[in-house]
Design a protein that fits this description.
496 residues, alpha/beta, MetI-like fold, D-Maltodextrin-Binding Protein, domain 2, 3 domains, five-stranded mixed sheet, 12% strand, binds arginine
């Protein structure tokens, strides 16, 4: 009876979490005609995140272009997916997004996999260093053998690879390049000119060098799936209109001001001199981000453990089955899932399945599926230990009383097994809360994702992460304590 009650309590708590965060799940459902644009929102003034009237928004000149492309020509609702730059092409290839508008340069290599629109903007490349090193680096030659920061998968990486003896350390986000410079991990960085100008404004200790990079004028264009000429035609038509009215330049100018804060009535000088906000201020200003992240993280973890519980129980029964094929299947399932990194599983489910079977899970669905099957493998082993831990005599007694194998399992063995493994299941929940942070990789707005967003908005490297760490800790600590109480209750009932 006690076991039933505890099980009920566990299910009930999961349900509560579910109800608390159900709105986010329904928000993830989409309706009507839409066009999905993929971009890496770390690239002010083209695309970046900004807190506008307390709301997190992705803004920039590329967004203005995307709005025109979506609304004006296709009457569709614009949906934006913020993905790491080097994941954009795979996302387009697998059909998760309809187009890329991310300051992307049409290179021959990329053209092999996607089609590009006409050029909509010409940018240039510059070298950024620490302010005190500005005079040290005057020519491309002076960069020989230097440690160079670049964004992973960008043409800046190609440029840096062309520098003799350069040591590259590519990172996902442009803001991380600035941190690499500030923490002396790299000596210089290759960046897009306007992007560098915006960054330097917020990092007064960094500067743009006078180095001239050969052939550094680089075009930007919109990428679509290969062969999608219809969409491409529509895009080119919109771009032609925008260019005829000089609108794109205006978009870039306005976005640059929005990024630097000039539209808030501050001059560039004032922005430079502004004191950096401290960690408590950041937490308070961005509490809505963190709160949303907490909801997603708890929802995902609860779903992961719930489905993991169900799948895990089935797998453990197969694992203990008398039929060798079942045993073998279950063992393979467990070994494969435990022997491969969860990140790889996530990417296979999200991108691989989409491509292979043409099933497009939303980012949230992919996250839940990955966490569920991953934890099911661990839970299956926990259940097995629990089932095997029930004294054999009980099975024998039940069977000699005439109970069938199934009935013995259902009424005698499994209830006791579950009771003995409840603490281990709780631990799995704690583990999943922490591990779920990898889903931010595909763009689920969980706590880790929000911390990254706050980092790029505030230009603050460390504080947003420390806040996230503190929140993860508080969540897992409270949960462990609660589990401790449940465990004590359970063992007290044993004593009776
Ligand atoms: N133009 C460069 C390229 O195509 C960099 C673009 C980076 N874009 C971004 N949103 N981070 O490789």
């Amino acid at each position: 009876m006690k076991v039933c009650k505890s099980l009920f309590a566990v299910c009930f708590s999961v349900l509560i979490v579910f109800l608390a965060v159900a709105p986010i799940a329904s928000a993830a459902q989409d309706t009507g005609k839409k066009v999905v644009v993929g971009l890496s929102a770390d690239f002010a003034p083209y695309e970046f995140r900004k807190n506008i009237n307390g709301k997190d928004e992705i803004v920039g000149s590329d967004i203005e272009i995307a709005k025109r492309v979506a609304a004006a020509d296709m009457g569709a609702e614009l949906q934006i997916q913020d993905i790491a730059f080097d994941s954009l092409l795979p996302a387009l290839d697998s059909g998760r997004i309809d187009m890329i508008i991310s300051g992307m340069t049409p290179t021959d290599e990329r053209r092999q996999n996607v089609d590009f629109s006409d050029t909509y903007y010409i940018s240039r490349q510059v070298i950024v260093t620490r302010a005190e090193d500005k005079t040290k680096y005057k020519t491309m030659d002076s960069l020989k053998g230097a440690a160079i920061g670049v964004q992973r998968g960008s043409i800046q990486q190609d440029i840096a690879e062309g520098i003799q003896g350069a040591k590259l350390s590519p990172v996902d986000k442009v803001s991380d390049i600035m941190l690499q410079l500030e923490s002396n991990r790299v000596d210089a960085a290759v960046m897009e000119g306007p992007v560098a100008e915006g960054q330097v404004l917020n990092h007064p200790d960094l500067a743009i060098t006078d180095i001239q990079i050969p052939d550094s004028d680089t075009p930007m264009a919109i990428a679509v799936q290969k062969g999608n000429t219809e969409l491409l035609g529509q895009i080119n038509k919109t771009l032609a209109e925008l260019k005829a009215n000089d609108e794109i330049d205006k978009f870039v100018e306005a976005a640059f001001k929005l990024n630097s804060g000039e539209t808030d009535g501050e001059t560039a000088e004032q922005i430079k001199d502004k004191p950096k906000p401290n960690i408590f201020q950041i937490f308070w200003d961005y509490r809505s981000y963190y709160w949303q992240g907490i909801q997603y993280t708890l929802f995902l973890s609860a779903m992961g453990v719930l489905f993991g519980f169900i799948i895990g129980l089935i797998v453990s029964l197969l694992r203990l089955s008398q039929i060798s094929v079942f045993r073998w299947l279950a063992m393979t399932y467990i070994e494969i899932l435990r022997g491969t990194p969860m990140l790889v599983q996530l990417l296979i489910i999200h991108y691989g399945i989409a491509q292979a079977f043409n099933i497009n899970f939303t980012v949230l669905e992919s996250g839940i599926i990955t966490l569920s099957i991953n934890s099911s493998a661990y839970l299956a082993e926990i259940f097995r230990a629990g089932i095997q831990g029930v004294d054999r005599g009980q099975t024998e007694a039940a069977r000699s009383l005439g109970m069938s194998y199934g009935a013995t399992m259902r009424h005698i063995i499994i209830p006791q097994a579950i009771k003995s493994v409840l603490p281990a299941i709780g631990n799995e929940f704690v583990v999943i809360i922490k591990e779920s942070s990898i889903v931010s990789f595909i763009g689920v707005a969980d706590l880790m994702f929000q911390a990254q967003a706050v980092r790029s908005i505030t230009y603050s490297a460390l504080s947003p992460l420390i806040i996230a760490a503190a929140i993860y800790f508080v969540m897992t600590f409270i949960l462990s304590k609660l589990l401790g109480i449940v465990e004590r209750r359970l063992s007290a009932s044993d004593q009776r």
